[in-house]
Amino acid sequence: MLRNVLVGLLIIISCGSCHWKSKTAATQNEDTTVVKDAHTLSNADSVDMQHLDLDIVVDMDRKQIAGAATWTINNRKAATQLILDTYDLSIDSVSVDGKPASFVLDKQVKYLGSALHIPIRTSTKSVKVSYKTGKNARALQWLDPQQTHDKKHPFLFTQSESIYARSWIPCADGPGIRFTYNAHVKVPKGLMALMSALNPQELSTTDTYYFTMDSPIPAYLMALAVGDISFKSIDERTGVYAEPGMIEKCRYEFEDVGRMVNTAEQLYGHYAWGRYDVIVLPPGFPIGGMENPRLTFCTPTIIAGDRSLVSLIAHELAHSWSGNLVTNATWDDFWLNEGFTDYFERRIMEQMLGKGYSDMLWELGYQDLVAEVNNLGATSKDTWLKLDLKGRDPDAGLTDIPYEKGSHFLKLIENNVGRDQFDRFLAKYFESHAFKTITTEAFLAYMDTTLLKDADDVKKELNIKAWVYGPGIPANCPRVDQDRFKFVDSERTKFLHGTPAAQLTTVDWTTHEWLQFLRKMPTAITAAQLKLLDDAFMFRTTGNSEIADLWFIMSVRAGYTTPYPAMEQFLSNVGRRKFLEPLYGEMMKTPQGTEMAKRLYAKYRGNYHPLAQESLDKLILKKG
Predict the structure, then answer these.
(1) How far is Cα 343 from Cα 431, in angstroms, rounded to an integer?
(2) 3-state secondary structure of 224
(3) For 607, what's the count of Cα atoms within 13 Å in the CB-facing half-sphere?
(4) Which of 243, 253, 291, 316 is catalytic?
(5) Are 32 and 11 in contact (CB under 8 A)?
(6) Residue 89, beta-bridge partner list
């Protein structure tokens, strides 16, 4: 061991203004302040990680990535070593400025992996690390053909957020550390590779793909997908990728994505990433979507056949401004990514589908916020916007708090200063902080000196401290109009008072109205009542995953067994944690349900991403 590594890196955070264009990593450290990042072992506070050249081979048979990561660095503080984050990587060799060099790989630190120490000089410009991924790479899901939609070829995809890029690339893995990259990726014949970069639209004739990302991004936005993939254009700068058997359905579902990009630009300024494409991944993808620059990764559970769930794409698109363009400095500042993005998503949907539609999104989000606060506890510090995740897995902050409390805080600001003024403020915020990272404190200071300057009455009304550094839901949390949901509530009341389900007025209800209808059913609803609803509306066979998951949870709770075969099919095909954890969790509440949960999980665990397996192992197998 060279020494104990630093847990609590001092990350350089840009606070100055910039032009609305891409900046190189070499110039992004001007006008800086310093903040600690507790989730990287690297020393990027001393050594600038400017550019990555990645040269890898994807071996689908061995389920392994092997190759080299070459970092262009600026040793601006004359450090004697470069320290990189790794997780379950096998390090084959290291060279510094083209010459073989020694290295030390530390023992693993819980959650964080192992620090890789490489001796460097003040003049060092290039460090190359040759490596292989391990069997426990948390970012990687390797799918056998039968686990894909078409069941013909294997598939690989990554999920690097929050700190999982280190499990497939030796890197400085923190959201406050940005770099550009090029990549050469060799894959088996007949498969396509895609990254968070400029992407091909046809198969390579050489089985090697070349990628460029010339705007600096953090490691959590490094992304790779390899498989039997087709492409369909939507318009001149948007398109969709999917397995051939899914591509037509996906193209239909995403008809309005180009219009979404135009709408977002009208709200908050130029889209800075060139193309905006979406890839629909196989079912094992553990989350709804991942905002990888230029190529959103998304779950097939949003392919409902009626374009009813595409607000998720609006969310991932909004990340092109809040998250990808202006990034939270640490995972303690996660609400700066997700709260802004939820707010932006709802503004896009309001612009496209009207206020009544976005009001439903706001109300369902408020319900999620209430449920999360009840789950975490009204006095829990995990209900603060500014989190404290030191010593913990940063995924502990992946709750509805940064999303919903964050977005409702912004909605409150809008209500108090006026929409036009708030929109101008946000557009200027994105422009002046483009390709930079920011802390909660820096954002509040910026807002105080711009939007809220000489506005003491507004600041008093906002009660910012209660929102950012206080628990629970502040008393001034905004609510929206309930007109559409009031009608839904009246129809539910009719049913509960004896009106046959088939006589309810449900024509043209959206997903959100059905969710409101079902969410507000009494917990004591009987299996007989569920059967009446199921016979009328066939919930058990719905292709809408949001409705299906809620219906299965209600069925398990009431002991209504008719949907169980459909529920098993759902659990075999869906890998999204948002659906898996509540459904398995409901089963685990009774002895009979626990037996069913263990049987089904043993059968389908292999279909789920390692991150989903981790959380479900704790829930069902009581591991970890």
Answers:
(1) 18
(2) strand
(3) 23
(4) 316
(5) no
(6) 133
In terms of pTM, does the model score above 0.85? yes
For the cut 80, the answer to whether the pLDDT of residue 27 exceeds it is no
| DSSP calls for 189-203 | TT-EEEESSS--SS-
Catalytic residue status for 210: no
State percent of the chain over pLDDT 70: 94
Q: What pLDDT is attached to residue 623?
A: 83
Task: Dig out the tokens for 353 from the structure.
Answer: 């589908």
Catalytic residue among 111, 366, 403, 601: 403
Residue 112 falls in which region: left (phi positive, over 0), alpha (psi -120 to 50) or beta: alpha
Structure tokens at 73: 């660095």
Is the pLDDT reported for residue 5 higher than 70?
no
**Structure tokens belonging to residue 349:** 């949907």
Q: What does 132-175 look like in DSSP terms, one character per residue?
A: EE-TT-TTEEEE-GGGSSSSSS-EEEE--TTTTGGGTS-B---T
| CA distances to 175, 180, 289, 394, 409 from 335, in Å | 13, 25, 17, 13, 10
SS3 assignment, position 86:
strand
The type of residue at 225 is: A
Q: Is residue 316 annotated as part of the catalytic site, yes or no?
A: yes
Strands, DSSP E only, in 306-413? 326-328
Looking up tokens 């979507």, which residue turns up? Answer: 289
Q: 343-374 b/e with 16+ CB inside 10 Å = b? A: bbbbbbbbbbbeeebbbbbbbbbbbbbeebbe
Using the Cα atoms of residue 296, residue 167, residue 169 and residue 322 in order, give the sign of their dihedral: positive
Q: What's 9-228's CATH class?
A: mainly beta
d(CA 250, CA 240): 7
Residue 11 has pLDDT above 50, yes or no: no
Question: Kind and range of the H or E element at 179?
Answer: strand 178-186
- Work out whether strand 99-101 and strand 89-96 pair parallel, antiparallel, or are unpaired: antiparallel
pLDDT band at 36 (very low <50, low <70, confident <90, very high): confident
In whole angstroms, what is the distance from residue 314 CA to residue 264 CA? 9
User: Rounded to whole angstroms, what are the CA distances from 1 to 10, 108, 109?
Assistant: 22, 12, 14
Q: Are strands 230-235 and 208-218 parallel, antiparallel or unpaired?
A: unpaired
Helix (H) or strand (E) holding 556: helix 545-558
Side chain identity at residue 236, one-letter code: E
The pLDDT of 46-67, averaged and rounded, is: 98
pLDDT digits (tens, 9 = 90+) for 520-562: 999 999 999 999 999 999 999 999 999 999 999 999 999 999 9
Answer yes or no: are the C-beta atoms of 292 and 218 closer than 8 Å. Answer: no
